[in-house]
Amino acid sequence: MELYKGRPENTDGRQEREIRVYDCLDKLGIEYERTDHEHADTMEACNEIDEVLNVLICKNLFLCNRQKTDFYLLMMPGNKPFKTKELPAQIGSARLSFASEEFMVEYLDIHPGAVSVMGLMNDTDNHVRLLIDEDVLKGEYIGCHPCVNTSSLKIRTKDIVETFLPAVHHDMTVVKLTGE
């Protein structure tokens, strides 16, 4: 795997959803580094990518309430275990579960294994609430997929929080997860 600055020169064979991410980041003037790789749809597969990007890839979980009326994108360190019981009281929601692929595609235009904060650019009606574990915000960079799981990006955390999120009209809720 190689590390590249910015978007791929040749976009042949790349999905439209991936190209839209590069277009969005470039329009916002957000610098990023990128690596291309085989399908990486598990945290284990992301370990090698972490080394190339020199960043910890975020674990991104797409969650919903029992009624399937409230949806959440949770960003947390990839090496931290997720314990569902830690979250509901912090966000004022009842029991949470993983949302279906149907909602993931409808709201974020992403399929399982490629869930990423970048998908919020497709959530123009703000169906999805972004939750970020406080430990993610401590890092200088965030590693994420550009809405496909065959590339990964390294973006400054500050650029995600201060430029990207306001541009896509999303706020964030900071949560504290211990993984215990």
UniProtKB/TrEMBL annotation:
One Pfam entry name? tRNA_edit
Residue ranges occupied by any YbaK/aminoacyl-tRNA synthetase-associated domain in the UniProt entry: 37-161
What InterPro entries does this protein map onto? ProX/PRXD1, YbaK/aa-tRNA-synt-asso_dom_sf, YbaK/aa-tRNA-synth-assoc-dom
What is the similarity comment for this entry?
Answer: Belongs to the PRORSD1 family.
Please report the name of this protein according to its UniProt entry. Answer: Prolyl-tRNA synthetase associated domain-containing protein
Can you name the source organism? Muricoprocola aceti
